[in-house]
Amino acid sequence: MLYINCPHCGLRSQNEFAYGGDATVKRPELNKEISDQEWDNFVYLRKSPRGKHLELWHHISGCRQWIKVERDTSTHEIFKTYKANEAIE
Amino acid sequence: MSQDFRLDNVGMVNREKKISFKFNGKKYFGFEGDTIASALIANGVHLVGRSFKYHRPRGFFGVGVDEPYAILQLDRNNERDPNIRATEQEIFEGLEVKSVNCWPSVSFDIGAINNFLKMFFPAGFYYKTFMWPPSFWYKIYEPFIRMAAGFGEASIKHDKERYEHKYEYCDLLITGSGPSGLASAYAAAKNGARVILAEDKPRFGGSLLTSDVNIGNQTGIEWTEKIIAELKSMPNVTVKNRSQVFGYYDHNMLVMSERISDHLPKTQKYLPKQRLWYIRANEVLISSGSIERPLVFGNNDTPGVMLSSAAKEYMKVYGVLVGKKPLIFTNNDSGYETAIEFKKNGVNPIILDTRSNPSSDIITEAKNLNIEIRFSYVVVAAKGYKKVKSADIAKISDDKKELFNIENIECDCICVSGFWTPSIHLASQSGNKSKFNEKIDAFVPDKSKQKENTIGSANGIFTLEETIKDAFDKGFDVSNKITEKNNKVSVPTVVEKKSSDHDKFWCVPLPKGKSYKRFLDFQNDVAVSDIELALREGFRSIEHVKRYTTLGMATDQGKTSNLNGLQLVSDIENKVVPQVGHTTFRPPYTPVSIGAIVGREVGKHSKPTRKSPMHSWHEKNNAVFVDAGVWLRPRYYKQGNEGLFEASKREAKNVRQNVGVCDVTTLGKIDVKGPDAAEFLNRVYTNAWLKLPVGKARYGVMLREDGIVMDDGTTTRISENHYHMTTTTAQAANVLSHLEYYLQLVWPELNVNVVSTTEQWAGAAIAGPNSRKLLIKLFPNLDVSNEGLPFMGYKEADLFGVPAKIYRISFSGELAYEINVESDNGYFMWEKIMEVGKEFQIQPYGTEALSTLRIEMGHVAGSELDGRTIPYDASLEGLVSKKKDFIGKRSLNRSAFTSTDREKLVGVVPIDKTTSIPEGSYIVKDPKAKLPNPKLGHVSASCWSVEYDNPFSLAIIKDGKNMIGQKLFAMSPLKNKTIPVEIVSSHYVDPEGKRVRS
């Protein structure tokens, strides 16, 4: 079970969190004309990398904040965690 | 009591306390502290089971977790417990165990015919035999395999025992209380670290219990007792026996199973049977020790052949002789220790040493004791069927290929030692890639992967002096990293006998003309010939050889067979063991009971149960409850002999004619607050929200980004910057996460806060033509006229002294109001409504009537908004704004969503007006069409319309609106029904919506 350092609460067990997928996906702006392809990419297409992955976790049984976690998908090593709108190094 | 094989005054069992138990129905005696194995051996019993494949007789091979043979089934308080290792299970008064895998009895076993058919059971037997014809699978092969599989039978009754889970944190977890575990625990604890020391056996000390050593002028046992006593007295230390750390998971999470009551006749009142510990350890020291390796020779699975260390432990710990004419077969000095122990207890052993001329202190001691030693000698084959009676032995050439002078000598047990295999399982599970240590012919852990270090013999260190010194250092170093303290304890002096090098020999060649089975895996009956065959058939990867032959795949996970198997593969392939590599070690290290894994989460504890504040009222009034997510909701209120159908019809009818009240507390409620709340709702919902005035409610639909309807509900503007959102019961948690996602990640610039208020409010929906009359009585000072509180209006009022919120919203399609009060006042509100409503013929109604009312009104719910529908499918197009953007809007332009033949919501009425249509039925044009019959759609919800007194259903069918008026068929292959139906509008009752506005 992963041990995730919530930037708001500190180290907490994985079972307090819900996984939220790729954190690098950016929602297209409202009212912006975009192609079907761009919209499709946003809604459906996700990379599934082996190695470093910046992903969202929701501290659902804790502070209820969405956080970003940089994790190695093959070793589960967690390099760094960020608040929702913190700049990513 | 005479126990022929029990020694006087030797061992650590409690001679004061005699314990009786039954094995295969026969009564035996042992002492407190005996395991089933030691007690049976004391009674001279060595035949305890039959092997998995050939049903060969099985005795005892080891003395602990590595035991491959003695797997028994335990009957405890009328419950069956299979897969019990006789070497681990302690006896208690009244214990009953029996052999498995044999019929009719362990002594006379019909299945043993397999032994004579063994040429038909080669490696890969299953893959080769159970292939053709395919039709044989269900009736012949599968039942056969099922019958042959497994050790014992699981109980089919509920397990009444209690199991617990515990979460624990520590600086340092130490797995094993042998010399290295004790030394490191002591050093770390003295330096202020929070330590957990776990020992899988009942007694602490590991090898110190049986080795003839001296630490700080004390015997191994004395030193163990001193250290354990001191550790137990320290507040920063937890010491646990009967506790197996069986899994090493991510981020230093280890799981340990503690057998609290397994050794007791009956679980004590406040104690669970077992407890599973989830331990998050800052650092881990793995001191799991090592397991003796067998030597491989003919019929080496005969009862009476066992590990020499096991024979020694049976003597020293349990005071039990495994035989009176022992033959010791060894390639290292460990066998001598066992021989010396036999000699000290008045038994004359013979040692066969594969080495030609070794010398060490211990060999000298054996010689001085006049023990017969034959160098360059091996056991060729054990003789005897149910117990070793003699052995064929021979001199072996220096190149270990030729056998000379084969002779038969009498013996009643053969104690084998093929040197030691470090238990690297936990280190390997942590991700540590092991490395091969040539000196000890075994794998040891390599560089640490997680925060783990391996110490003692688990790390391939086999001298006590080095072990103790290294463990003290590691314990200090690790604790120093955590506590930053420098309290170093001094390392005691160690006196031990020096050993000579072991011989790399492990397998005795077959003599000419003999085809003895030489077993590698004792539990799965995998012999040398099976591995040879697998390799001849082209299997190369060790992972494939393992799966094809089942080597190491039994419940003992190959603890004794693994390295010899690798040795054999590398010999045949002309490789060295590290080139072959080893198979992956996975948790659990030892079998764990399902009960321990499940813990307390059984029955009603498997999920939380949420109840509304009015729950006890419902109970008192004969409510029949239904699970709605984790909530319990009244389904209907039973009167007299009513069933579900009659009661729900009565309740729904009363709503249409008079007034009803329904507990709607379970609806999700979310407070949305902030200056940008209106803008936020405008983006979340498909319809427009910017112009909703204060004091008004609006129905809204929200989508996922892929255009599918996520949830619906009403949201009310309480004040300028405060909205009260309701969600469906099922989606409440998801909607909150969804809102938080957008506020925190996508539009952080919006100044809005959301919080769940579901449990803060108790809700009652009052519905029916009499509801306004009731409201006037409930709130005499409030203007509740159609003008004062219009449809979708909102008012705050006083309910007999209790503050209340009134929303004029309707799910039933009738004139209706929803009253919310603070949860604590919910019961009071409910009683008042019932009391005041009496004169208007009020009746409570449950979820079934609620469904009936919404279905005949054509209001959609979860069965229509099922994760596949977009707003247009559910007749919600009026709610989709063309002007503004919102979550999921762009998806609605996708061609699949704009296609005209999408399935849309309609109503369905059976032509005979009497046959109810099963939910899930298909709507088809021609019931006799060839299968698969093209379906137009499906029936999503059915009810008995109380308005028209006939069945009515909602369905989602292709090109729905254009199908209205058509005569089609509803088919339910499950219920074997075909019903002629007519498609009608989904708004079956009051299509203009006059009632809600009346």
Task: Give the helix/strand layout.
The complex is a heterodimer of chains A (89) and B (998).
Chain A: E1 3-6, E2 10-13, E3 18-22, H1 36-43, E4 52-58, E5 66-72, E6 78-83
Antiparallel strand pairs in A: 1-2, 3-4, 4-5, 5-6
Chain B: E1 14-23, E2 26-32, H1 36-42, E3 49-50, E4 57-58, E5 71-76, E6 79-85, E7 95-99, H2 113-116, H3 125-129, H4 136-148, E8 163-175, H5 179-190, E9 195-198, E10 214-215, E11 218-219, H6 220-233, E12 237-240, E13 243-249, E14 253-259, E15 274-286, E16 290-292, E17 305-307, H7 308-316, E18 326-330, H8 334-344, E19 350-353, H9 361-368, E20 372-375, E21 377-383, E22 390-396, E23 403-410, E24 413-417, E25 420-422, H10 425-429, E26 434-437, E27 442-445, E28 452-454, H11 464-483, E29 494-495, E30 519-521, E31 526-527, H12 528-536, H13 542-549, H14 562-572, H15 577-580, H16 594-598, H17 615-620, E32 623-628, E33 631-637, H18 644-657, E34 659-663, E35 668-673, H19 677-684, E36 697-703, E37 709-719, E38 722-727, H20 732-746, E39 753-756, E40 761-767, H21 771-778, E41 794-799, E42 802-807, E43 816-822, H22 826-837, E44 842-844, H23 847-857, H24 895-898, E45 903-910, E46 922-924, E47 937-945, E48 950-958, H25 960-963, E49 967-972, E50 977-984
Helix pairs in contact in B: 5-6, 5-11, 7-8, 8-9, 12-14, 18-23
Summary, kept brief:
The complex is a heterodimer of chains A (89) and B (998). In chain A, 9% of the residues lie in helices and 37% in strands. Chain A is mainly beta and 89 residues long.
Key attributes of the depicted protein:
heterodimer, A: 89 residues, mainly beta, Folate-binding fold, two-stranded antiparallel ribbon, globular, B: alpha+beta, Ubiquitin-like (UB roll), FAD/NAD(P)-binding domain, 7-stranded mixed sheet, 6-stranded mixed sheet, 23% helix
